[in-house]
Target: FAD-dependent oxidoreductase
Amino acid sequence: MQINVKLIRKETIASGTMAFHFSKPRGFEFRAGQFADYTLIDPPETDTEGNTRGLSLVQAPFEEDLVAATRKRDTAFKRVQKDLPIGSEIKLDAPYGDFSLHKTQSTRAVFITGGIGVTPVRSMIAQATHDKTAHEITLLHVSRTPADLPLKGVFEQLARDNSNFTYVMTFESALDGWKDEHGRVDAAMVKRHVPDLHKPIFYLSSPDGMVKAMRALLVGLEINEDNIRTEEFSGY
Ligand SMILES: Cc1cc2nc3c(=O)[nH]c(=O)nc-3n(C[C@H](O)[C@H](O)[C@H](O)COP(=O)(O)OP(=O)(O)OC[C@H]3O[C@@H](n4cnc5c(N)ncnc54)[C@H](O)[C@@H]3O)c2cc1C
Model:
């Protein structure tokens, strides 16, 4: 579907990370985990990368708004997007992608994400929680510091609402008083949080080459590559 959507709200969801809420067009259908191409209309500036970016749909299909979340950077697209006035329109071309939750509810889902890579994961876990599916779900979410972790409060709430969902945060920087996981995701951390490594479906989504590194880590743990699904946020 190609349609213009209206910006209804924007907010900061972590240090250097913003969410943009758009009105959902009537009849727009998608699967949790998919993404949309957003194109700026007559932007005041542009650069060689152009006026379109693919951004995951953060909200789940059952929810009212469409939400895109991005890490702010000094590019023409991001500058214009940050300053978009409420009520302005952006062109949406969607849905795309096949990064979505498997149907077999007795198979655990393990998500390993870095920073902003968590956007499609939020959609999938929110929809599973809403539908009260029986999936056991584990999310390992890494960022530099707690302040950088997008949607932290949202996942904490989902973990309270869904007893099948376990949210594990880990931070690259050493933190005073933080007794839980710290450091990047490594084999030992995966083993600590995933009971039977050979049964789940693993979902990897991130910018910055983390998807490639995590795939290598899982393959090193002799996890069947058929059980690994990925969404690389190319462009960062
Ligand atoms: C399926 C899919 C889903 C995605 N979902 C999301 C999402 O939910 N949220 C999200 O934020 N992104 C998402 N992305 C990535 C998104 O499409 C953009 O590529 C990304 O946001 C970068 O856009 P930009 O305007 O910051 O950089 P661009 O202008 O596109 O930058 C292009 C290149 O310029 C260089 N560059 C530009 N600025 C800098 C800088 N400040 N520092 C270093 N290098 C720089 C880099 O080499 C970069 O690769 C997704 C991508 C895919 C493929």
Q: What stands out?
A: Residues 207 and 233 are 5 Å apart (CA to CA). The mean pLDDT is 96. The radius of gyration is 18 Å. The first strand starts at residue 2 and ends at 14.
